[in-house]
């Protein structure tokens, strides 16, 4: 039964067409950073793995507020920017 379910999930997998490192900070890079801190590629992968339709965000900034990690613990993020300039180049930007 389990292999049947994972077979269906594999078909639903959306793979990025390309990937590059972020060059400068932006709101999108900030959100990629937050997903990657929680152990996901990006919002698309998070929604696939956790089977959720929406991600909790700060209304003021639109940044991701809370993510459930793969081990079912949670990462909580501030309203303010968390991805510092020296971390920006480590962020992977996925293009679909």
TrEMBL record:
Q: Which domain of life is it from?
A: Eukaryota
UniProt function note: Essential for spermiogenesis.
Q: What are the annotated GO cellular component locations? A: nucleus
Q: Which family does it belong to?
A: Belongs to the MEIG1 family.
**Where are the membrane-spanning stretches?**
none
User: What is the protein name stated in its UniProt record?
Assistant: MEIG1 protein
């Amino acid at each position: 039964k389990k292999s049947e379910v994972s077979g269906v999930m594999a078909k639903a997998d959306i793979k990025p067409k390309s990937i590059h490192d972020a060059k400068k900070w932006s709101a999108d890079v900030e959100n990629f950073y937050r997903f990657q801190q929680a152990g996901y590629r990006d919002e698309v992968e998070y929604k696939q793995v956790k089977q959720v339709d929406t991600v909790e965000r700060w209304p003021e900034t639109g940044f991701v507020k809370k993510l459930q990690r793969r081990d079912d613990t949670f990462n909580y993020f501030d309203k303010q920017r968390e991805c510092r300039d020296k971390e920006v180049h480590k962020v992977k930007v996925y293009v679909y």
